[in-house]
Structure formats: structure tokens, C-alpha cells
Amino acid sequence: MNTVSELLDARTIKLELEARKKNEALQELIELLHRAGKIQDPEAALAGLIAREKLTSTGIGSGIAIPHLLAEQAEETVMAFGRKREGLRFDSVDNQPVTLIFLIVGPKHQEYAHLRLLSRLSRLLHDESFRQALLEAETAEEILRIVTQEEQREG
């Protein structure tokens, strides 16, 4: 299974999202993946994510959202990370603004691997000091280092 640190790269990390609304944040992160050559059809991916969010929000509380999609057009699992320090309304379960967004798009036939990745990421993000380090990081490379160290610590 891919780890979070294997899926992220500096090109798919945005330290200050410009978005003011949930769908704008999704679009911004999808564009990062598209520009990095990780997804071919950004419009279809965005439409799938928006439809998924209408079913139930992926804002899981504590300032975190993990929008995710299993898509026909995805050949492999890809991930983007965005941060909005002042927060963004995301219809989260705790009604609090979201500051950290991990977006995942994976192939439709890899449901088990997708669920394991979501579980692993959720477990990492449960640690308040990890979330705080992500909020304070000043470069994409620092985000990658923090994620890698946390995954190694978790084992």
C-alpha cells in the first residue's frame, strides 16, 4: 500500500489556498493534480468530488477534510494537500472551518487500498501536534518531511 508521503509531492501541495468556498478548494486541488500530470480529466474528477460531497461532507472535524473519490479515469491513487490557515466552511461534522485538506483520487477497482489509505491518514491526523506542525510548515518540502516523520513514528 502507498503511504501518504509516497503519494504527495511538492507539486501537489498548496500552502495557502485561494478558495473561499468548498467547491473552489476542490477545484484548486484538482488543478494541482492536473498540472502535475497526475490526472487527465480534471472536470470529471471535480464533478465526481462535488457529487460525493453532496452525499455527505468529508469534513471530519478538528479542521480536517479528506475529500476522496474512486474514479474510472484514475489509473493510480493520487493525492493533493491544501491549507487555508483562516479556515474554510466545509460542512464539517463539528461545524468548524477546515484548515487542512487532503484530496485523494483513486482507481475504482481499488476500494480496499483506498479505505486503508483513508484510515491511515485519519489516524495520523488524529494527533494534534501533527496537525499543528502542518499548519506551521513554511514550505511544501517541510510538509513532506513532517508527513514522512509522522508515518515513520507510527510504523
Give structural notes.
There is one protein chain. This protein is 46% helix and 21% strand. The radius of gyration is 14 Å and the shape is globular. By secondary structure, it is of the alpha/beta class. The chain has a single domain, classed as Mannitol-specific EII, Chain A.
Please outline the helices and strands.
Layout: H1 4-7, E1 13-14, H2 22-35, H3 42-55, E2 59-61, E3 64-65, E4 68-71, E5 78-88, E6 98-107, H4 111-125, H5 128-136, H6 140-154
Characterize the biggest β-sheet.
6 strands, mixed
Calculate Rg over CA atoms.
14 Å
CATH architecture: 3-Layer(aba) Sandwich
Overall form: globular
Main features:
155 residues, alpha/beta, Mannitol-specific EII, Chain A, six-stranded mixed beta sheet
Structure described in brief:
The protein has helices spanning 4-7, 22-35, 42-55, 111-125, 128-136, 140-154, and strands at 13-14, 59-61, 64-65, 68-71, 78-88, 98-107.
